[in-house]
Amino acid sequence: MPVQTAAAMKTGNRVVILGALSAIAIATARLYAKEGAAILLVARNGGRLDALATDLKARGAALVETAAMDLEAEPMNAPLHMAGWKHRLGGLDHVHLVYGYLGTQSQASASPAELARITASNYASAVQWCEAAANIFREQKSGSLVAVSSVAGDRGRQSNYAYGAAKGGLALYVQGLAHSLAPTGARAVAVKPGFVDTPMTDGLKKGGPMWATPEQVGRILRRAADRGGPIQYAPGKWRLVMMIIRAIPAFVFHKTKV
Amino acid sequence: MDEKFLQSDSIASWGRVIRASHRVARPRFADELPGLITAGGDTPALPIGLRRSYGDSNLNPEGRVIDMTGLDRVIAFDRTTGVMRAEAGLSLSQALQLLVPAGWFLPTTPGTRFVTLGGAVANDVHGKNHHSAGSFGASVTRMKLLRTDGSAQELVPGDPMFHATIGGLGLTGLIEWVEFRAVPIPSAHLDAQDFEFGHVRDYFDLAAEAHTRAEHTMAWIDCLSGGARLGRGVLSAANWSSHGGLTPHREDPKLAMPVDAPGFTLNSMSVRAFNSVFHDLKRMRTGPYATHYEPFLYPLDKVAHWNRLYGRDGFYQYQCVLPPATARDGVIELLKVIAASGQASFLAVLKNFGAHPPAGLLSFPMEGATLALDFRNLGTRTLDLLADLDSIVLSANGRLYPAKDGRITPAMFEAGFPKLQDFRAYLDPGLSSAFWRRVSG
Prior knowledge:
The structure holds 2 protein chains of 2 kinds.
Chain A: H1 3-10, E1 14-18, H2 23-34, E2 38-43, H3 46-58, E3 63-68, H4 78-89, E4 94-97, H5 105-110, H6 112-140, E5 144-148, H7 161-181, E6 187-193, E7 195-196, E8 211-212, H8 214-224, E9 231-234, H9 237-247, H10 250-253
Helix pairs in contact in A: 2-8, 4-6, 6-7
Chain B: E1 6-8, E2 22-25, H1 33-37, E3 45-48, E4 64-67, E5 74-77, E6 83-87, H2 92-99, E7 104-105, H3 117-122, H4 130-133, E8 140-146, E9 152-155, H5 160-165, E10 174-181, E11 183-184, E12 189-197, H6 200-211, E13 216-222, E14 233-240, E15 255-256, H7 268-282, E16 289-292, H8 293-297, E17 303-304, E18 315-322, H9 324-341, E19 344-353, E20 368-376, H10 380-395, E21 399-400, H11 410-416, H12 420-424, H13 434-439
Parallel strand pairs in B: 2-4, 3-4, 15-17
Antiparallel strand pairs in B: 1-2, 5-6, 6-10, 7-11, 8-9, 8-10, 12-14, 12-16, 13-14, 13-19, 18-20, 18-21, 19-20
Helix pairs in contact in B: 9-10
């Protein structure tokens, strides 16, 4: 085993990233790489994972492993895969769940298949991976799970309630995991980003103070793996914004088109 | 049209004079590029990077642009030889984060680190060490170029297409990755010294002397004073230090211009931001001093969006190079006209290029003196002044830097670049830019 790898393992920096090819995931992975972490990347496209792995090694990662897999399609085998990944890394300290599917509400309303995909990607499959990670952390009494939710999960809105409900449900699930893990010392965090300038949001009008970069969100995800409460906003100002939005009475809210 | 190209109003060059809507693709992986580059139809495309070019060489309003900044992965970095191969969208800033701790540095760097590798090649950028290192293209060992006809080729020095692509303004094809040779450094710090000169004519002797013993040199010029103090300034010269360790710069700017400055009345925020930048420059130190590379090589990168200082109408940058025979008289004449106009920014940069052969057919650097300064866009008043400067440059057998230009005439461009006719043979017919349509007649 290379010296650096041993160091990464000793310092407890072995991380699995689910949905590793998203802009936010790459920004997060680069922070781990700079720390000399051991990283396992999971996403569908094996060729792209290899390109990312080379980059992360050049940026200082002690070890980069890849697993080409459709996470939406494989949730029933989550415990098996998670155990295998832990073995490949020589242990498991952090799991980041970053993948998701935005879709469009109009299509989700018209097509059961689109609604099923949004629900499966953002909630049904996601909670299986979360539970699999949490079970490992519970048993070893250490480790942290950080799942990407969304501010869209804080109030149902006509423009994206399918996505919002799934991401909101995921946050609630992770909040429950955090509660159940608390006695063991392990942690679970749902991070709720606001608007992020990524390929997922291409087509929206961007810019202005409410838009964050993937790098900003990545820093928050990395920090969330080490500390902070079970629900975190990215950036933090969204906590206040969403508090206000949740407080707007329905008779007012229903007059808006957000 | 292809749904991968989305309409966007957020594409502007650094000078921000032109506000135009573009159709933009933002690829993130190399496997997307062949589909994008061949998706043309009748509208030309243009690969773009971090958009630090000032004028219109990075704009393509009637066509499409391919924003390469999402392709920013390192493909290979050999810590023993210093050879790095990376996707064209990697910024010099990110490259330094890897190079410096391993004891390497960019072979040369422009005054901002927020430039992509692809942009550094396409503009054959130069830096304060031009007299010792040549331009960026001189250190490129290999690159991959995709053409709109679907062909792909790996280019090495000696290939005609290689030298057309160096300084080729992104018009010969899409650069997928670049491999270059870094230079070893013993430390991330420089041993520097500043030398004052009371008149610009004294600069030339000072610079010639400094070039014999300093790897990095450049001078700041005061553009506001005339007469006996015309073009007074400070020449800074530096060599890599052997002390101080190999810590790279901090990645985030500490300060930012939050909004456009209202007209020329600088608000207190921007004044404070700028004072901090020029603090170092104005503190004319006597005797040698040690400095990290960051403030010495990248003074303006401390302030994000400093281009907003010039207000909503934007600004022009004027950068010319004059050959040794005419440099001294030409620069003096330019500064006289500029000082009399009262339109100049308060500081200009003056630097002497070395005698390296050009790396590309359209490379800007040639032996002589290069002068660069900003002009706030005041419409025709500014354009008239710049046209007056053009005639001085033209009669001094000089040329202008396409990366900075947003207005020269085809004749001026042709006069400055004798290899222009040769270059045309290597153009990719599916690529174009606002600059190219303007100067190619």
